[in-house]
Write the C-alpha cells for this entry.
Amino acid sequence: MLENLILRVAVPVPLYSCFDYLAPDGVDPKDLLPGMRLLVPFGRGERCGVLLELVVESELGVESLKQANKLLDAEPLLGSDDLELLLWAAEYYRHPIGDVVASALPVRLRKGKPRAASGLPGWRLTPAGVEQNPDSLARAPRQAQILHLLQQHGVSLSQADIYRYEGECRSILRAMEQRGWIESCDVGVPKAVASKGGPVVTVELNPDQQKAVDAVSQRGDIFQSFLLDGITGSGKTEVYMALVESALAAGRQVLILVPEIGLTPQLMQRFQERIDVPMALLHSARSDLEREQAWSAAARGEAAVVLGTRSAVFTPMPRLGLVIVDEEHDLSFKQQDGFRYSARDLALVRAQRRECPVILGSATPSLESLRNAQTGRYAHLLLLERAGNAVPPRLDILDIRSVHLDAGISPTLFRMMQEEIQAGNQTLLFLNRRGYSPLLSCYDCGWIAECRRCDARLTYHMGSGVLWCHHCGSQRRVDQVCPECKGEKLKPLGQGTERLEEVLAVRFPDVGIVRIDRDSTRRKGSLQRLLGEIHQGRHKLLLGTQMLAKGHHFPNVTLVGILDVDQGLFGADYRAAERMAQLITQVSGRAGRAEKPGRVVVQTRHPDHPLIHTLVRNGYGAFAMEALQERQAALLPPYSHQALVRAEATTDRMPRAFLDDAMELGQAMGAGDVEFWGPVPAPMERRAGSFRAHLLVQSNSRGELQRLLAGWLPQMRGLKSARRVRWSVDVDPQEML
Ligand code: ADP
Ligand code: ZN
Ligand code: ZN
C-alpha cells in the first residue's frame, strides 16, 4: 500500500493548515522522509514546501489530491525534533505552519534552490597581519581599512564580505597578500582562527564564576534553566566560554543566541579567538550563501558552535547539548512582525525537549526571568562583583529642575566633562533620539511639522535637510515658510544626537567627537570603523543612542552622562520603566571597565521618581523587585499572560468594528478565566496611512489563554468584518505599539 501514501506538506502560504499531495512521478514514497523539500502545485503556481509526515488517509479523498511536482532533496533538511519544535511554535504563536517551517530555513533553501557546496573563498590574517598596526599605514589607506576590518572581525572574512564593506578591492588584497599580512582561505565554516601569535589568554575563574560553571555542568544531560544574573563586567562571557569548552569536550554542539550582532562584533570576536572549533555564524551581516553554508555545517554536525541572532534558534543541531542566550532581556529576540516568536522562549522549549541545560544571561534580566528565578523554575546564578580589578561605576542623580540646559546638557555636567577631557579620559553621552531635533516649530504661531501618514511629529535632520518620520520612514524637504501663517521663523525644538554633536563641537573645538547612531552608521562597516577609532583613543567625546548601550567595552570611558531619562518614565507602555532601567544600567556598565573607575550621571527633572531613586540608590536588582510588586498588584505579566490582537484599515471605524465583533465572539465562548481589554485605538492610532486598534486578551493561566485562542481565532477568520482589515495576533507581546 506504500504507493498510496499521502504527503502532508507545510506550504508557505498564509493559511493555517498543511496540504496533502501524492508523491511526484518516479519517486517511491519509501524514499521520502519528513524534512525534505518538495515543489508542489499551489493555486496557479508552484511553491516550495517541506514534507511533515506521510499518512494513509486524507480528508479530501485520494482521488482529488494533486501530485507534488518534484522532490528537491535526497536527505531531510530538518530532523524530526526540529519539525516538532516548529509545530509547537506554530501552535503556540498561532501562526501558519508553512510560514513557520520556511522561517527555519536559510533564504536560498526556502526558495527551492539546491543546497550549496560548502566553502567560500575568503581571506584571513596571518600572524604578521594580526600584529600589523593599521594606523602605521597612512600611505595605504585602503590596506589599513581592510586590515582593520579583519582585525575587528576575528581575523577571517569571505571575499564577498570584504567587498561589501570596502568595494571591489582584488588588487589591494593581492598586495596585502604579497606583504605577508593575509592569506586566502575557505570560510564556509570558519575553521580555527589564526592564532594571535601567542597562547590564548585564559583567566582563572573567580569563586562566583566557578560556582556558576559547576552548577551548570553538574546538570550534565538533563534539562534545567539557569538565569546568569551578573552586573556588566562580572565575567558572564567567561562563564559561557568555560561551559562551551566543557560541552565541546563532551562531544556536544552549543547554540549561542545573541542580540543584533552588528552591534556587538566584539563578543563574536572573543568567542572566535577563544574557542578553537568550527563555528557557524548566523546573522544578517552575512550573505545568504554564507548563512546557508554555516547552517548546513551545523545541521551536518560539523560546526560545533552556532552563534547567531534570533532565527538561529531553529538551526538543526544533531548533537546539541547546551543553549546560551546572552542579553536575554533584549527586545530583538522577539520578532515583531509576521511570525511573532520569542527566540529566548523557544530556546527554553528547545532545551527542554532536547533535555539539556539552557542559560539565560544578563546584567539586567527581564522581569519575566527574574520572576521565574524567584519561583525556582530557573536556578538563579549571581555574579555580584566585577571581575578582575574593575570597580562598578558610581551613579548619581543630577537634578535639572529650573537649570538652564545647553543642548540638553546642564552646566554641572559640562564641568565634569571638561575635567575628564583634561585628564585625558573619555566621556560617553547617551541620548536616545537621533536626528537634529525631534520637532520643527513655527516661532510665530506654534505650528509643528507632523507626518501626513502617522500621528507623529517629524524629526528634523539638518545634515540632509529633510524632515523624517521615524515611524513610517516618509521624508520631505524641510519647509521654508510656515504652512499655517507663512511666517519664516521655523525653529528646531528639542535635542537629537545630530544637534548635540554640533553644540559639542562648538564647546570643545579641539576634542575628537564621535557620534554613533543609526544615521552615522548607515553604511556597512562604518560602525566597526567608528568603534575601532574609539578604542584607539582618537575621540574623547562619544555620543550616541542605544547602539552605544550594547555590549561594547570602552575601558577609557570614565564619565557617562544620560541626558533624557524623563521621556522613558512616563511611556504609554507598562514596560517603559523596565526598558529605561535596563538601558540606564547597560549604558552605565560601559564605564570604567579597566583600572579607571567610572562615574554615571543621570539628568532628570523627576529626581524623586521612585524608579529613578531605587535604581540609582540600590541598583537594577532592587528596582526589579519593586517593579515586580507593581506588576503583581496590577496583575500584569509576568503575573498574567497576554495576547494582543492588532487590526488596521484605511478608516478608523473598520478596525474597531472588527475587534468589537471579535470580542463578542470571544466572550460568547465563555472563556472563564480570560479577560478582554478594549478595543482601543493603538497608542499611535494612525501610522503609515492606516488606522490601528488593539484588543488585549489576558489570563492568569497560560493554558486557558491558549485554549481560548485555539477556538477563537479560527472563528475570527470567518467574520465578515475581518475581510476589511489586516489583523494579527501577538502571543506574549513585548511592545504595545
Ligand atoms: P560580562 O560578560 O559579564 O560583561 P566579561 O566576561 O566580558 O563580563 O568580563 C569583563 C572583563 O573581565 C573582561 O575583560 C574579562 O576578560 C575580565 N574577566 C572576566 N573574568 C575574569 C577573571 N576571573 N579574572 C580576571 N579577569 C576576568
Ligand atoms: Zn506659523
Ligand atoms: Zn509617518
Observations:
- Confidence is low (pLDDT under 50) at residues 190-199.
